[in-house]
Amino acid sequence: MEIAVATLTTDRALLLYGVPGTAKSWVSEHLSAAVSGDSTLVIQGTAGVSEEAIRYGWNYAQLLAKGPSMDALVVSPMLHAMQNGKIARIEELTRIPSDVQDTLITVLSEKHLPIPELNTEIAARQGFNVIATANNRDKGVNELSSALQRRFNTVILPTPATLEKEVEIVEQRVRDLGKSMALPLEKSALKEIQRVVTVFRELRAGMTLDNKEKLKIPSGTLSTAEAISVMNSGISLSVHFGDGELSAADLASSLIGAVIKDPVQDPIVWREYLETVVKERADWRDLYRACRELS
To answer: Among the three residues 132, 156, 180, which one is the final residue of a domain in this structure?
Structure first.
């Protein structure tokens, strides 16, 4: 976080990079709000994003009636941030086509946005900057050009370093979301959080936590965010369709869905993990039975 904040005090843009589910968007949103008091100037990266989403567009009714003018200009979040000295956010930068990405080069290097139709340009006010997020596990990623990479300071957001830290993050987030959705966090939930996080960490690493057994790695990311989703789904099932006491049976379907993304390879990985790891742990027998019934 210190590197990220220090970057925003310079003229370099910030790129938050890492696997999905490492809270890149959350960090981007909170940094923007903390630094410029506004986190709503967002450009959502997709394959269909055009240059107008980054630069500006036109109100064609005004354009036809009066010709090119500032009144006919449709201000993009980027241009709004430049005019007001705020931070613009770009979500999933690598999903944006490469030719559209390069629209950012002039903005980031010169801090000016040319408007050739009006023979003028917009100069960014002090305080303007850009925070972009990107992940390295997308299919169809558009790699950043070297020219664009040089204009970003890249901060890689890793997965939590320890089991205890990841459990703490999941527990806190599940508790916060539970309050907003009126889903109480039962005392038994902490035990289930520890098991879900353990499953995710072992399958991510391809190794049991005691380093005694190698495992096949599934195709999915099994991120901390997905662990939170599995827990919330399980708690919701237990409250609305169970006895309110969170159990392995409530978590099984969501857990399996999080692990099995590739319908060909991942079921093999999951069944092997069930039979060689989960089944052999005496205090995990309930989880084994619940998952075995659904696998």
So the answer is: 156
